[in-house]
Amino acid sequence: MMEQQSTMADESNDEDVILELRDVSVTFDMDRGVSRVVDKVNLDVRRGEIVGVVGESGSGKSMLASSMLDAVVDPGELSGEITYYPEDGDPIDVLGLSHEELMQFRWEKISMVFQGAMSSFNPTMKMQGHFIETLDAHGADRAAGMKRARELLSDLYMDPDRVLDSYPHELSGGMKQRALIALGLVLEPEVLVMDEPTAALDLLMQRSIISLLADIRDKYNLTMVFVTHDLPLVTKLADRIAVLYAFELAEIGPTGEILHDPAHPYTRALLNATPNLDMPLEEMRPIGGQAPDPVNVPEGCSYHPRCPLADETCRQSDPDFRTVSDTHKAACHHWEQAADAVTFDVEKVKR
């Protein structure tokens, strides 16, 4: 079989791209060297789709999410190109926006729901105040905005009157998380980026919010980027999945292909390592070794110290992306042998 190779993880192929990332990197200068926590990521997000970004803790997921809104905090340095394509109008160079333009862009074009709704609200302010404060900061019409807020809260299966008249501590964790999603959508952005929005919730509430997000996407014609460490969870929501390892993309493709026929050894190992309440403890297979230090990422393929397929080529040469199918790519020299080297039963990773 002849392999096609590409340095690009994602190519739009004339799809309706709404957000385009090219060679996006985030670095921090440290006493012991430069810490690279996002490393030349290329990704196209298509209008109306849900992209799941998955990886272990410390893989760069949250920093990549922040990069999409140019929200990397100092002293982090963000480089590369990020372009937003509105439905009408000229493309927007996100990294070229002024401070004032960026403040408007972040809520009105792309909004973000951060991890941990518990700490996202002012405990001295009722929920209604958070919505009004956001509307006023953007010069939006209060009446129209609060009407939309009520509709969003209702769509998320909450009583708007009760929620808006409550202080944050009077709401459960699941209710706060749903209220945070509603707040992120109150200014009608086209893209919603969510960083581990279900991490602090129980399994039942996670499943509930996943189902609600799918409904919200369809009703409001949203594009979503869902960042999580939980690969099986996001397969119930995402159209495509991008797998991060060591601050760079390892694999990207349609959810069905990633779940049933993952091509990168890391993706397969990640599926094996995911907890499942129905799986006996002795069948759990954690990934051996440790994720690399961002100051000292291995030469060649960054996964080679943990990979059963690693050879001298892997240790010396960073792999380009191999074409697994027209819509599926993996950055692995030996992806065709991955299924034999890292076996797993897809039924055991479903939840």
TL;DR?
The protein has helices at residues 61-67, 99-108, 127-137, 142-155, 160-164, 173-185, 203-220, 231-234, 255-260, 265-273, 312-316, 338-341, 346-349, and strands spanning 5-6, 17-30, 33-46, 50-54, 77-84, 92-93, 110-113, 191-195, 223-228, 240-245, 248-254, 321-325, 328-330. By secondary structure, the protein is an alpha/beta fold.
Q: What structural category arises from helix and sheet content?
A: alpha/beta
Overall radius of gyration: 21 Å
Report the strand count. Answer: 13
Total of DSSP H or I helical runs spanning 4+ residues? 13
What string gives the helices and strands in order? Answer: EEEEHEEHEHHHHEHEHEEHHHEEHH
Tell me which oligomeric state these chains represent: single chain
Strand content: 15-25%
Helix percentage: 25-40%
How do the strands line up in the largest sheet? 1-12-13-11-10-4-9-8-7
Q: Flag low-confidence runs.
A: none
Explain what this protein looks like in three dimensions:
- This protein is an alpha/beta fold.
- 31% of the residues lie in helices and 23% in strands.
- The protein is built from 13 helices and 13 strands.
- The chain has helices spanning 61-67, 99-108, 127-137, 142-155, 160-164, 173-185, 203-220, 231-234, 255-260, 265-273, 312-316, 338-341, 346-349; strands spanning 5-6, 17-30, 33-46, 50-54, 77-84, 92-93, 110-113, 191-195, 223-228, 240-245, 248-254, 321-325, 328-330.
- A nine-stranded mixed sheet has the order 1-12-13-11-10-4-9-8-7, sandwiched between helices. It has a four-stranded antiparallel sheet with strand order 3-2-5-6, covered by helices on one side.
- α3 crosses α4.
- The chain is globular.
- The two termini are 35 Å apart.
- The model has no long low-confidence stretch (mean pLDDT 89).
